[in-house]
Amino acid sequence: MQRPLExxxxxxTFDTPTGPHTVVKDFNVKIQPGEFISLLGHSGCGKSTVLxxxxxxxxxxxxxxxxxxxxxxxxxxxxxxxxxxxxLLPWLSALDNVLLAARQAHPTLAAAAQRxxxxxxxxxxxxxxxxxxxxAELSQGTxxxxxxxxxxxxxxxxxxxxxxFGMLDSMTRFELQDLVLELWExxxxxxxxxxxxxxxxIYLSDRIVLMTDGPEARVGLDLPIxxxxxxxxxxxxxxxxxxxxxxxxxRFLDHHSRQFNxxxx
Length: 265
Ligand SMILES: Nc1ncnc2c1ncn2[C@@H]1O[C@H](COP(=O)(O)OP(=O)(O)OP(=O)(O)O)[C@@H](O)[C@H]1O
Ligand SMILES: [Mg+2]
What we know:
Number of domains: 2
Largest sheet: 6 strands, mixed
CATH class of the largest domain: Alpha Beta
Strand content: 15-25%
Number of strands: 10
Bound molecules: adenosine-5'-triphosphate, magnesium ion
CATH superfamily of the largest domain: P-loop containing nucleotide triphosphate hydrolases
Number of helices: 7
Helix content: 25-40%
């Protein structure tokens, strides 16, 4: 029986030339297995900091991340990460980029079987036809699909996304949101999505965790999104619950940016 992922009393302080800067303080979230949560907040509040600590790419100053009762502070094959920029190695084909991860996850498989794993995930995200293309030959959206295939080929329990659609045009963003939703419906991995985009967070998530503005950002509002699934993008223009949730998120963000501006003045 899998247990929740716990972000527990997490604080992160950076040493800066002007002294210590505490970005997040006493940040607590419990994420159930198979849950899809979004982390939403103003730019600079500390979303990426929290996500990178969950990914094990940065260390907490106090508190930490607990998976199955054990504190994690290094990257692991149980956590696949996708960033805003696809970060593919430019000298390797799409397939070879995905193969790097497939080999890490399946070190004992024969080379042909590792290739099968990589191809399976390229196929799943709809870009098998570009397997032998180099990243520079691919559109941003296709590169990001390859990056998602690379994360999936780790066969991780957790998918961690840091604004994965932020650099895409709106039609491509919609396509990739639908892809992520479809993938999640298929095997219900636990997902943490960092985003600025309110509609994206409502469309995809079971729960939106809204962060207060930093410094010392914490969870300001934990908002369940109880809209029925499968979701339909058209609900954004017709569903009263959708409007209510959207208004609640905007009220929160608006209040916090005004408070922040007052404090900064
Ligand atoms: N290595 C670092 N050293 C010092 N300060 C840092 C460091 N990394 C991040 N910060 C600061 O921590 C704060 C939070 O940064 P972070 O990137 O986590 O925010 P974010 O919510 O992801 O922002 P955005 O929405 O713009 O991506 C910012 O004020 C940033 O300047
Ligand atoms: Mg960020």
